[in-house]
Every structure is written in structure tokens, then in C-alpha cells.
Amino acid sequence: MRLVPYAEDHRDLTLALESDPRVMGHLGGVSTPEVAERVHRWRVEAPARGDLFVGVVPDGATAPVGLLGVWRSEIGDDTVYELGAMILPDFQAQGVASGAFYLLLPQVRAAGITRLDSFPGVDNVASNAILQRIGFVRVGERDLDYEGRSLRCAHWTRDV
Ligand SMILES: CC(C)(COP(=O)(O)OP(=O)(O)OC[C@H]1O[C@@H](n2cnc3c(N)ncnc32)[C@H](O)[C@@H]1OP(=O)(O)O)[C@@H](O)C(=O)NCCC(=O)NCCS
Fold it and tell me: What is the pLDDT of residues 21-70, one digit of tens each?
């Protein structure tokens, strides 16, 4: 498995992920093409903000089948670095996201980030399970805004 920096030619990957109800079901629902384009631009411009977005290319594949992101955000009074992941349904539950997380850790540390936080919906079984699997600790719950909709989220955190 290898990671590649998220780039302009990953637009189709973002469009596929953002338009798939199986991927977006716990993330506020599918995005319109306009929103997906905005999300793509935000990912391409990640390095300029000090954020990290990478495509995940499994062994034997030539193109990414999903992505991981780490981005700075304001949650309440805290500034945190959020971790997120999206994997195309055909490639889920095969260790892709968890394997990619460990490959990403050196880049996270090199960026000077010392702690990661993640806020999956409380009903997002896969996401809550993987966070525990990769060493995050659940520290609480809070309501967060997902594209204008309030969602009850678990709060997970991990030192890096
Ligand atoms: C969450 C997501 C990124 C996980 O990616 P993945 O590549 O399928 O995860 P992995 O195969 O690496 O799974 C690692 C661990 O997570 C858990 N897990 C993953 N999918 C699961 C599921 N559907 N049900 C229960 N546990 C699950 C397992 O504990 C697994 O460990 P195991 O293989 O030892 O059993 C993927 O399901 C996804 O893209 N979901 C839609 C988008 C989303 O909700 N993203 C999270 C919010 S940012």
C-alpha cells in the first residue's frame, strides 16, 4: 500500500465518494456536484493551509481507492487537527484505512501535529470501530454541524 498527495487528478475519486450514499450515509448525505467540486478544491489546497490529504493506493492498484485527511478546525474553544477517512465501498473492510493511517503517521508528526481528534456520528459503526482499533480513545460526545445539519458525534482523540 502507498499514499499519494491528494492532487488535481483525484477529482473523479472525490466525485465518486461524495455521490455514494454508502460512503456519505453518516456524513450528512450525498453531496451535489457543486459541493463535491468545492470539497475537491479544498483538498487540493490542503498543503497551503498546513493540512494533509492523501490518496490511498492498495497493493496491485494503480489509482487511489479512498483518502485520508488531517485538517485544522475550531471545535468550540479548541483548535484541533481532525482525522477523516473515506474508502470506496468495494474496498472497505479490507484494512485499507487502518493500514493507511499508520503510513500517514510520520507525515502527521513531521507537520508538527501532536494530537489527532475525530468526530464520527455516534451511529457510524465502522468509523467508531476503526478509531478504537487504531488507538484512539473515546472522550465524549457533542453536536456538530455537517453541511448545515446538526449531528450527534462521538469525540475520539489520540496522541501522535
Ligand atoms: C470508516 C471507513 C473509512 C473505514 O475504512 P476501511 O478501510 O473499511 O476500514 P478497515 O478495513 O481498515 O477497518 C479497520 C477496523 O475498523 C473496523 N471496521 C471497519 N469497517 C467496519 C464495519 N463496517 N463494521 C464494524 N467494524 C468495522 C474493524 O474493527 C476493523 O478492524 P478488523 O479488520 O481487525 O476487524 C469506511 O468504512 C468508510 O469509508 N466509511 C464511509 C465514510 C465515513 O463514514 N468515514 C468516516 C468519517 S470521516
Answer: 999 988 888 999 999 999 999 999 999 999 999 999 999 999 999 999 99
Res 5 pLDDT > 80: yes
Domain boundaries, the chain: 2-112
Q: Which CATH architecture has domain 2-112?
A: 3-Layer(aba) Sandwich (3.40)
Q: How many angstroms separate the alpha carbon of residue 31 from the centre of ligand 1? A: 21
Residue 36 Cα distances to 15, 64, 135, angstroms: 6, 17, 30
Dihedral over alpha carbons 27, 30, 33, 38 (to 10 degrees): -10
Instruction: Give the nearest ligand 1 atom to 101 CA.
Output: 12
The neighbour count for residue 48, using CB atoms within 10 Å, is 7
For 96, the enclosing helix (H) or strand (E) is helix 96-110
The phi and psi torsions of 51 (rounded to 5 degrees) equal -95, 165
**Ligand 1 contact via 133 beta carbon (within 6 Å):** yes
Distance 93 CA to ligand 1 centre (A): 6
> Which of 13, 26, 87 is the best mutation target for the ligand 1 pocket, counting ligand atoms within 8 Å of the beta carbon and taking the most?
87
